[in-house]
Batch of 4 targets.
Target 1
Amino acid sequence: MKEYLPKIINFFSKIAPRLTAGYALKKFATPSRIPRPQSEMEVYASSKKFFLKDGIAAFEWGNPTHPLVMLIHGWNGRGTQIAAFAKSLVEKNFRVVALDGPGHGISPGKMTNPKHYADFILNAQKELAPEGAQSVIAHSFGGGSAVLAVTYGMKVKSLVLVASPAFYERVVNYFATNFGLNKKSELIFTEMVSDFATIHPRDLNIAQLGSQLKIPALIVHDEGDTAVQYKWGEAIHAAWPGSILFTTQGLGHRRILKDPKVIAYVTDFIAKN
C-alpha cells in the first residue's frame, strides 16, 4: 500500500488540494512515539527521572549544582537516545539532563514544529538553569530547533549540532514531493506549515541563523549520513564564524550518537568552552 500512496495522494491533491494539504500537514507534523529499546535501558535506569512544569519528561545524571548540559533528541527520538554522552560529561563535572521533546517519548503533545520545539528548549533552560546552560547537544531536527532557541534568547555558552539539517525549506519540499502532492497542493501545504510553525520554512535557514550567533559551535556529521546529507553540515560550518566541523565515516545518522571518539571530542569541546 505504501508504494501506491504517493499516487493516491497526487490524485486527491488534484481534486481537493486544500484537504489533501491538510492531511499532509498532519502526517508531516506528527512524530511517532518509538518505544525505548533495550539498548537504552541501562542509561535510563541510572537516571533521575522527573517532569518539568509543562509536563516535559527529564532524565538527569550528575551533581545538580554543576553546570548544565542539555541533551536534545531529533524527530521520532527520545531523551535517552542521546544519553551516551552523559557518563563522560558527568566525569568532567557537568550536570546532564536529557529531555523527551513535545510529542515524543513520554512527554505530552501530538503535533510539533521547529518553533514549538525551540520554545520547549528555551523554557527548559530557563527552568533547569536560569543563569544559563553550559552547552546543548542536539541531534538532527533538535539541532535546528536549538539554534532557533538561541535566537529567541536561550542562555548557553556553546552548541553541539549532531547531524543537523541546514535548510528547513528543503525538508518541507522533500516531504511534499515524496508524499505525492501536486504543485498547487504543495503551495497550500507550505502555507499551512508556515501558519502552524509561525515561521516560513525559508526563514529557518540554520546556516544563516548561525552566522549571526556569537557562541562557539561544534558541527558533528558523518559523510555517509543518508537521513541528513553531509553537505548540510558543511553549509552550517561555512556560514558560522569560528565553528568547528568534526567529520566521521561509517557512523550514519544515529550510530554517531554512541561512538566513543565522538563522545570524547564533544566532551572536550564543551569542557573548553
Note: The CA atoms of residues 207 and 235 lie 6 Å apart.
Target 2
Amino acid sequence: MHAAKLHGQRLRLLSYNIQVGISSRAYHDYVGNSWKHFLPSPGRSRNLDNIAMALADYDIVGLQEVDAGSLRSQYVNQTEYLATRAGLPFWRHQTNRDFGHFAKHSLGLLARYTPYVVEHHALPGIVPGRGVMLAYFGCGKARLAVAVMHLALGRGARMKQMAFVAELLHNEPHAVLMGDFNCLPHSPELRMLQQRSGLLLPEQELHTFPSWRPSRMIDYILLSPSLRLHKAEVLQLPHSDHLPLAVEIECPIGLNLQSVSKA
C-alpha cells in the first residue's frame, strides 16, 4: 500500500439501497417479486453486474440491503461481488440480521482506499437488526469519517437511532453520513440529527424513491461543513426500488488516504 495525499482533490461518493439485487418497476412488483427475497432468481447476477458498472466510477460507496451470502443470493457475498466487478479493491460488510441459509441482511462499504479502521455498531430499537458501519480514512485531525446506515420504518426508533449516530459523529471534523434514512428532509428526527451532529443536507431536494417514479427523498449523503460539495445528483438506474444518490466533494487539505496496492 502507498499513501496518496489529496490536497484539495475531489472524491466521488455514492449511496445505494440495492434491494438485494432485485429490480422493481412498479408497486405491484413488491408482490410479484416477493419470492426473490427468499429464493435465487436467474436475473439477479445480471442486475448486479449492471449495478457494478455504475459503482466503478466512484471512490467510496455505501450500500444498503445487500446479502452477505445465503440461499437467495446463491451464497454470493454481494458486497464482495460488486467490489470485484467494479474494480474497487477494498470492501467490507456488516450483517445486521442473520437468518442463516435463508438471508443475511447487511450493509456494504466499497472503496478505492483502505480505511485504517472500520467500526460496526448496532443501532437502538425495539426490533433488533439495524446498524451503522463507520470507517475512518486517514488519521489525525484531517481524517475522514464515513458512516453507512439503514434506519427503521418507525419514527420513534429512527429518533433513537439518529441520536446514537449524532453522538458518534459530532466530534468528527470531516464526516460523511450516507444511507437509507426512511424519512423526509423536514422530519423532526432528521432536523435533530443535523442540530446535534452539525452535518448538512444538499440544498436541492433529490428524490430517490420509488425508482420508477421518484417522488420522495429518503436516501441521503450528509456532509460536515468542512467538506465542500461540488455536485449532487440522483442516477437514473432502474436496478432496485431506490435510485442511487451521488455526490462529488473536495477533501480538506492534508487528508491522507491509503490506496490499496494491486501487487
Note: The first helix runs from residue 29 to 32.
Target 3
Amino acid sequence: MCNHVFLQSANNYITNATYVALSDSVVNSQLTLRPGEEITVPINLDGYRSLRSFATIAFPIKFIKSTFNMNGGVTYTKFPGIINNTLNETENVMYSLGTVLASNVSEFVDFTVSYSANFNKVRNQLVKERNDNYFQHVAGLQLNLLSKNGWFFQNDLNNQFYKGLSEGFDQIYSLWNMSIGKKFLQDNKGELKLSVFDLLKQNRSISRNITETYLEDTRNEVLQQFFMITFTYNLRNFGTAAARAVNRAAGGNNR
C-alpha cells in the first residue's frame, strides 16, 4: 500500500478583484458601468491553499495472471479573491476513486481494464448561487495481441461521462482507437501499422475551470476520425554502437 500527501500554500497569490455595479458607476472619464456590468483587475492576496492526498493498494490475481489496483484520494483547493471590496473565498473539494486490472499473461497477450470517478463540490463564500456539484468518470479497456509470426492487434476504448455541468455540457461519449500491423525484418526491427483514431466519430474536448469568482465550462474543437499508416524501424543496437565509439575515442586519446 502506498500513501502520499501534498500541501501547497501561497502568499501574494495572483488573483482578481471584481466590482459589480449595482447602479450607474463612473470608473474613470472613459468608463461607466451600467447595473449588472462588472470590471475585474488582477491583485495579489494571501490565502491560497491546496491539499492533495492519494492512496493506492495492489495485489495479484494469480488465476488470470493479473494485478488488481485500487486507488482513492481527496483534493482540497481554496482560491481567495475580492468581490465589491469584500474578501471572497471559493473552495473546491474533489473526491476520486479508481480501479485498474492489468494483465501479466505473456508477451503475446496484454490487457488493461480501468475505471476512475471524480466528484467535485464547489462552495463560494459570497455568491451562493455559484455553489455547484459535478461528476465525471472514465472507463477504459486496452487490449494488445501479438502473434508469433509478428502480426499484432491493438485496441484502446474509453468511455467518458460528465454530469452537473452547465446546460448543454453534460456529455457521455466513447473514444475508440484501433490498429493492426506486422513486425518484420531481422529481429522484428521493422513495423508497419494501419491505425484508425476515433472509430465512432465521437471525440470531444470538455473542461471546467474554477476561479475565485466564477465557474467556466468550455468546449474546444478537436480532431475526429482519421486513418494513418506508419512505418517504424527500431535502432536497438544504437546504444551499443555509441558506447563502442566512445570507447574507441577514449582509447585514441589515451595513446
Note: The chain has a mean pLDDT of 88.
Target 4
Amino acid sequence: MKTFKQIKTMLLLVIATVTGINTAIAADPNWTVNPPDFQYNMTMLAVINIDCAEQLSPSNRIGIFMGNECRGTALTSTVINGKFMASLFVYSNTVNGESLSFKVYDAANDIIYDAHLTVKFQQNASYGTAISPYVVYSKFPCLVNKQALPANNLITPDGDGINDFFAIEDVDSYKDFALTIYNDFGLEVYKISRDYKNNWGATYQDKTLPDGAYYFLFKNETNGKEYKGIINVVNPD
C-alpha cells in the first residue's frame, strides 16, 4: 500500500504534467551564499507570484542564481502592508551585466518553481520598494485581475513580436486616459496625456531601459478613475 507521502508526490507530478508548469518536487531548499566570496552587491525587495496569485506566506523562499550558483536567498518573512516580501542581498564579482535567474520555493506545496524572468546585476542597484516590491512570477504572461487594468506585466524588447510593448486590452476604449510610467527612483520615463496606442517598448530618450520593475499610473483626469501597476522589463541576453 502506498503511503500518504507517495500519493502526494504522485499527485503533484500529475498536476505538473497536466498544467505544463516547470516544477520539481523538493524539500525546503538548501540554498546558500557566502558573501565574502564576492566583491559587489545589490539589494532586492520582492514578492512571489505563483500562477498569477501573490503568495501570502512567511515560509516561502526566493533564490537568485548565476547558472547553478546561488547569489542570494531569503524567506518571504518581511511583512509590510500585508505583503510577504523577501529582503535579499545579491552578490557578484562582475560590477554589472551578469544575467541572473530566479527560483521560488512554495513551502505549502513543497515545490520549487523556475521563475520566468531574469535580472541583470548592477553594483549598488536596488530592485523593488516597500510600496512596489519586485514581483517574481512563476509564469508569464499574467493578466491582472478584473479590478485592475487588463494589460501585460512583462516587456521583452527583442523584436520577436511577443511582449515587445506595454499592451492594454481594448486600448481604444481608454482614449481619455493619461499614461505615466516611472522607474524605481520615481523618475518619469514615459508620459502621454491621452490616446495611448500600445507603443511603449521600454525606452527612454530613444534608449532601451535596463531590466527592472517600472510603475505605471493610467488615469482619466475627467472622472478620476485610475489604475496602478508594475511592468517588468527583461532585455534579451
Note: The mean pLDDT is 83.
